[in-house]
Inverse folding.
C-alpha cells in the first residue's frame, strides 16, 4: 500500500468546533530563491499546481486544543490572493471553512522533545456550512 504524502481531510475533522480567520491572507515567501535586486524575495509556488502560495492564520475554536494548536497556519494555492468570506460585523473574527483541505505530517523538533505536527494546505476558503444546509443537501 502506498500512502500519499498529503492526506485529504474534511474541514470538520481538523476543526470540529470551527476556525476563525486572524487577519488577511499573506504571500508565502520563498526563502530558497535569490532575492530580487531590491532585496525582496519572490513568492513561493506550489510544486504540484504551479500556483502561488498564500497563508492564513486561523484560531481553532476547539476547547480541547493545546496551547501550540490554538493558532494554525493554512496555506492556499491560488492564482491571486484568496478573498475571505464576509463575516458577521458584530464579531471580532471571521468564521471560515476550508475546501480541498489536506494535511502533511512532519516531526517538529523545536522544543524539549520532538513531536508529531501537521502542515495544512487548502484549495480555498468559504463561509462555514450550516447544519441546515448540510442536512438539506444530504436529503437530495
Amino acid at each position: 500500500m502506498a500512502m500519499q504524502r498529503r492526506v485529504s481531510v474534511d474541514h470538520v475533522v481538523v476543526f470540529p468546533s470551527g476556525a476563525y480567520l486572524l487577519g488577511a491572507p499573506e504571500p508565502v515567501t520563498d526563502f530558497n530563491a535569490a532575492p530580487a535586486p531590491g532585496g525582496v524575495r519572490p513568492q513561493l509556488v506550489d510544486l504540484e499546481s504551479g500556483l502561488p502560495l498564500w497563508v492564513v492564520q486561523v484560531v481553532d475554536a476547539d476547547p480541547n486544543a493545546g496551547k501550540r494548536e490554538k493558532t494554525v497556519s493554512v496555506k492556499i494555492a491560488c492564482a491571486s490572493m484568496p478573498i475571505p468570506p464576509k463575516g458577521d460585523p458584530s464579531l471580532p473574527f471571521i468564521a471560515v471553512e476550508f475546501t480541498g483541505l489536506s494535511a502533511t505530517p512532519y516531526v517538529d523538533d523545536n522544543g524539549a522533545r520532538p513531536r508529531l505536527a501537521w502542515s495544512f494546505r487548502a484549495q480555498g476558503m468559504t463561509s462555514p456550512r450550516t447544519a441546515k444546509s448540510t442536512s438539506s443537501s444530504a436529503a437530495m
About this structure: The first strand starts at residue 7 and ends at 8. The CA atoms of residues 20 and 95 lie 4 Å apart. DSSP finds two helices and eight strands in the chain.
